């Protein structure tokens, strides 16, 4: 599925986007620690459009990407009470689409307006060296501001690993492909070493994509700290204007 520029503009003008809030749960206590805000989009008939398709089209137009990503962050950060911790993905290209003058960056203003310690900024694992450099630069900015960061989609086969980025974040989120490849012995050696590294360096590890009791048992087996996925029913969606 590909979105044309016309379809993309219509989606933006109609403001058919919103957020789904998925709980991040402590593995031992089963208590909700925080929520991840996930971008959601609808077509004119109310059907959900995969976010990857929308963002693939948006990356052809940096200003539209900036507009939609900023609107999404406003929805996500206002969708929960101030008592809830929240993880938000922040697109590197959108972050720098407004220039490199950090004093004029609306994403920084939006995040700094939140209670300190409430927000964790997630950076998507990189698919190119230029992405890694932007991720590193963003993490350094947020570290200076006292905003915590997470590396998302780690171990996804389409992504590359930046050691510098991995060292700076406070949270590591393992992609759902870890569950899908749990029987691959060589792959699991790498996953286990990443978890060991995280524990030694004081990072917290989240396993994404948890849907079944066997997934929860696997999370215990590999020793992650938190789990996230459709196994938990406490999820809700909020669209613009709803």
Core attributes:
single chain; 242 residues; alpha/beta; TIM Barrel
What does this structure look like?
This protein has one domain: EAL domain (TIM Barrel, Alpha-Beta Barrel). It is α/β, with parallel strands linked by helices and 242 residues long. It contains ten helices and ten strands.
User: What is the CATH third-level topology name?
Assistant: TIM Barrel
Question: How many domain regions?
Answer: 1
**Number of helices in the DSSP assignment:** 10
Q: Classify the helix fraction into a percent range.
A: 40-55%
Span from first to last CA?
27 Å
What's the CATH class label? Alpha Beta
Q: Which second-level CATH architecture applies? A: Alpha-Beta Barrel
Structural class estimated from helices and strands:
alpha/beta
Assembly form of the protein:
single chain
Shape: globular
> Over all CA atoms, what is the radius of gyration?
18 Å
Uncertain stretches of 5 or more adjacent residues: none
By DSSP, the count of extended strands is 10
Q: Quick check: average pLDDT?
A: 89
Q: CATH H level: which superfamily? A: EAL domain
Q: Main sheet?
A: 8 strands, mixed, barrel
Q: List the helices and strands in order.
A: HEEEHHEHHEHEHEHHEHEE
Output the strand order for the largest sheet: 1-2-4-5-6-7-8-9
Strand content: 15-25%
């Amino acid at each position: 599925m590909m979105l044309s520029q016309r379809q993309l503009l219509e989606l933006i003008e109609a403001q058919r986007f919103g957020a789904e809030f998925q709980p991040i749960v402590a593995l031992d206590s089963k208590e909700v620690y925080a929520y991840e805000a996930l971008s959601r989009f609808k077509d004119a008939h109310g059907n959900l459009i995969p976010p990857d398709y929308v963002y693939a089209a948006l990356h052809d137009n940096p200003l539209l990407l900036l507009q939609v990503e900023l609107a999404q962050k406003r929805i996500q950060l206002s969708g929960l009470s101030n008592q809830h911790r929240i993880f938000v993905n922040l697109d590197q290209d959108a972050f720098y689409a407004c220039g490199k003058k950090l004093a004029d960056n609306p994403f920084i203003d939006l995040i700094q307006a939140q209670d300190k310690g409430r927000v964790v900024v997630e950076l998507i694992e990189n698919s190119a060296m230029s992405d890694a450099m932007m991720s590193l630069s963003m993490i350094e900015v947020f570290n200076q501001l006292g905003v915590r960061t997470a590396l998302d989609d780690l171990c996804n086969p389409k992504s590359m690993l930046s050691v510098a980025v991995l060292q700076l974040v406070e949270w590591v989120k393992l992609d759902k492909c870890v569950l899908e490849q749990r029987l691959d012995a060589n792959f699991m050696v790498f996953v286990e070493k990443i978890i060991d590294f995280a524990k030694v360096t004081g990072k917290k590890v989240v396993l994404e994509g948890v849907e079944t009791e066997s997934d929860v048992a696997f999370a215990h087996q590999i020793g992650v700290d938190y789990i996230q996925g459709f196994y938990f029913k406490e999820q809700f969606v909020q669209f613009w204007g709803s």
